[in-house]
């Protein structure tokens, strides 16, 4: 796609057409399938992209005996994780990871985060050197030495550039084309961010690029801790006023924590879809909020483990483990006093404090 | 309270004690009564304030034949506007406006905003020259030449300094001492802002000062326009995702509009209680949201006037008239293209666009 190549086309009309960009989606769950649908609608429309969108599927055998990939390719629908939604005929499911990424110029990572290390290991040396990546994976881990960012994992392991896409994105609502927004976080190359925007943006899914990978990615993780706090307020029936105050304090701590870890993080990022909008969605609906509400209603007498097992069919709550990880960073760095809400959420989760402490402690002015 | 006066006390023990600050609350509705309760709890506690808090009451005769002021003073309760809540024995209701403000060092204005011009006219020459004022009045008017700020009206008419207090403050929730926050906006004198904080702050009501009167005051008005938009989304049953996106776009337009009118307005103000938290409360509950929801459910076929009459017992919606006023400013200044959400809310309210336009139009990237 170098300009001189295009020029040559115009003058001679005989050279190869400029190479079209090939996109592969690594992952095919609920959100991955919606992402493939969004992308496929754009690659069909835009001449700079190859029509076909390859989607790597972790192969399963359906109760009918059919392979999941065969079912997806036959029905043009992810019958297991996004039933009832046509993905676009140009989405091709592929059970072979290495084959799926072969020749791709843009890789979209959207798997459960615990699989990413293994996937990266398998991809070393299998991707183009100049491939561009984006991570849609929310819920990176926050280790004591700081957060283990998924975008950094991908960048480091594969030696490639990696953006992130986060936001108030409930997959099933976007699947039926309800209006939504998202944020692309990029590091340096704005033209790459714009290419991602081109690939994801539709009339009902508005994508905005911001130069702040860390801020965008941390929002996606830290909001789950605030959602636990919001759930406690719901369970205690304290009303919208208190809930709004707790969400605001949570947003302040998300911002302060991100900036203390990465001074490059921008305040304005928290006004984007990945910030305030995702926080609102997660604190209104979402399973972290829901189980925390049940926890508070039971006055903390039934553990999160027990409630999770009962309410979530084996899924684990991101917010509870993130709260623990954040707490470890805070105590390790001597920052506990700066983050009364984050600290209190963890102490309530482990039973050191009662659920009512969420307002008694969060109100403390952080010692900054 | 000059330091030398205090000093004198220590040495001679005979001089007059330093003069205590006297506080009067002008207004006694639902929020005014709660404000009096908050303040009274602090004047009892803090030696620098005179215990007694005077509250001007627009006199009414109760069905029992008793005067409202007598009932308040006898029961220590505003039986009409905040029944069931003790105000504190040091709150004294006074039906005489001039008497109520006589000798006051701090005036708290908390009346319906349409009464303020008349009240100010009556107070000219009746207040101390160095009296400090604060306005708790939400819903100033936005006139074509710019907003008519209540704090400016008070300052200009009485020739005194005027702060504002805004936030996610549902009076009945604060009355029963549920956790809440508020923001004091001040112009220059930080020590005055801190005195207001001292007067309002309690263990369950956390007040933060910010040097941005205009930003704080505009938040309190503009959020009602966003609440109308959020109500449309609810009525169209578009889900939490879309609602969060619309709230976020609304917050962005609140910020942009305020900054275009007053370049001194600070981004950080919108992270305070008066900003994001009040927006959340208003878009979750509140009558603007509720009537707008009904409007959208009826596909715009029943007018706001009709729905207001049916649902609000004669109260008028702030949001609808503010949307109209904002629209006039936008078209007068040629700013309509910068504010697709604000403009669309008004056009839906007057029937030019259908309620579904709220997402089709808000998604337009503002041309900035």
TrEMBL record, chains A, B:
The active site is at 223 (proton acceptor). Its EC number is 1.1.1.8. It comes from the Eukaryota. Residues 23-190 form the Glycerol-3-phosphate dehydrogenase NAD-dependent N-terminal domain. Substrate binds at residues 138, 287-288. Residues 212-360 form the Glycerol-3-phosphate dehydrogenase NAD-dependent C-terminal domain. Residues 1-23 are annotated as: Disordered. One of its GO terms (cellular component) is cytosol. One of its GO terms (molecular function) is glycerol-3-phosphate dehydrogenase (NAD+) activity. Pfam families: NAD_Gly3P_dh_C, NAD_Gly3P_dh_N. It catalyses: sn-glycerol 3-phosphate + NAD(+) = dihydroxyacetone phosphate + NADH + H(+). Belongs to the NAD-dependent glycerol-3-phosphate dehydrogenase family. This is Glycerol-3-phosphate dehydrogenase [NAD(+)]. It comes from Pyrus ussuriensis x Pyrus communis. The lineage of its organism: Eukaryota, Viridiplantae, Streptophyta, Embryophyta, Tracheophyta.
